[in-house]
Design a protein that fits this description.
Elements lengths: L2 E7 L6 H13 L5 H6 E2 L2 E2 L1 H8 L5 E4 L6 H7 L5 E6 L2 E6 L1 H7 L3 H16 L10
Helix pairs in contact: 5-6
């Protein structure tokens, strides 16, 4: 299978209102997004995540809930945050919310988990040898 896109979908809206709502919820402990924790520190993207993006052959895009097209929105509904891989067979979840939570805020653990998920797509026979 040929991977054409890697899309990280945040569990947050990208509008100003959505961003402010998420930040307030984060401060109050009522909102969380494991992907946000991995990719951002404060209001900006982590330098380590920018470097991580550059190491993959297929660019890693990140989208907020309200930035998805209708097909992606239907596919990810109730599954965010997540990382989706798109091939000629359609979208599939590469990293679900739990896998992202296990990474903590670590870009390095995220990169390892994503590499393992991509190895499963490229060689399903290896899937049993990779940790979840």
């Amino acid at each position: 299978m040929t991977l054409s896109r890697i899309i990280g979908v945040y569990h947050a809206e990208g509008s100003l209102r959505g961003e402010l709502s998420y930040l307030l919820g984060k401060l109050l402990g009522t909102a969380s997004c494991a992907l946000c924790d991995i990719t951002h520190r404060g209001l900006g993207e982590k330098a380590a995540f920018k470097r991580c993006r550059s190491r993959f052959e297929v660019p890693i895009e990140t989208l907020h809930l309200d930035e998805q097209d209708e097909a992606l929105r239907r596919f990810t509904q109730g599954k965010t945050p997540c990382v989706v891989g798109v091939t000629e067979k359609g979208p599939s979840i590469l990293l679900d919310a739990e896998a992202l939570r296990r990474c903590g805020p670590s870009v390095e653990r995220f990169e390892e988990a994503l590499q393992e998920a991509l190895a499963k797509i490229n060689d399903p026979a290896q899937a049993s040898h990779l940790r979840p």
